[in-house]
Amino acid sequence: MPSEGPPIDRLREVAEAARRAFSVLPARPEEIAPPPLSRGGAVAHRLRTDPDTVERDLVKLVLTIVELLRQLMERQALHRVDQGGLTEEQEERLGMTLMVLHDRMDELCDRYGLTLDDLNLDLGPLGTLLPP
After folding, report:
1. d(C-alpha 67, C-alpha 5), whole Å
2. For residues 116 and 60, is the Cβ–Cβ distance under 8 A?
3. How far apart are CA 96 and CA 98, in angstroms?
4. Is 83 a residue whose pLDDT tops 60?
5. Which family does it belong to (predicted)?
6. pLDDT digits (tens, 9 = 90+) for 5-15
7. pLDDT tens-digit profile of 5-42?
8. CA distance 88 to 93
9. Separation CA 102–CA 118 (nearest Å)
10. What does the pLDDT look like over 91-114, one tens digit per residue?
11. Among residues 102, 76, 80, 101, which one has the least CA distance to residue 91?
């Protein structure tokens, strides 16, 4: 008869790992230890951000996610067209929808001083998030 869940020892192991992980995170700002001294003996400073920059960066992140989803939808649509499962009217509607969505992305990028290239995150050795 198959077991009804993970063994109790495994659950305890996972619970202990979670407890250790969350014990590393302070619950309140006042519990944060002072920053370590740098090599020169000066205290490292926390990063201060300008609210305008934070807003723009958040918009950039949201637009990056939307652009990724838009490109995935576009690929899926092209795949469906290649499969031949759509009527000509459906293909036309799908094409128009994707063009409008692309234009809206351009408008949103313009509004926040971004380009579609700005939305392409560099993932280091993995390359970029969005295809060229």
Report:
1. 40
2. no
3. 5
4. yes
5. Belongs to the gas vesicle GvpK family.
6. 556 776 777 77
7. 556 776 777 777 766 665 555 445 565 555 555 555 54
8. 9
9. 15
10. 999 899 999 999 999 999 999 889
11. 80
CA 57 – CA 37 distance, rounded (Å): 29
Count CB atoms within 10 A of the CB of residue 66: 15
Give DSSP secondary structure letters for 65-129: HHHHHHHHHHHHHHHHHHHT-S-HHHHHHHHHHHHHHHHHHHHHHHHTT--GGGG--B-GGG-BS
* Structural tokens at position 46: 């926390």
Which residue, chain included where needed, has tokens 């579609």? 116
SS3 state at 25? coil
Length of the chain: 132
Residue 72: closest CA among 22, 6, 130, 11: 130
pTM: 0.57
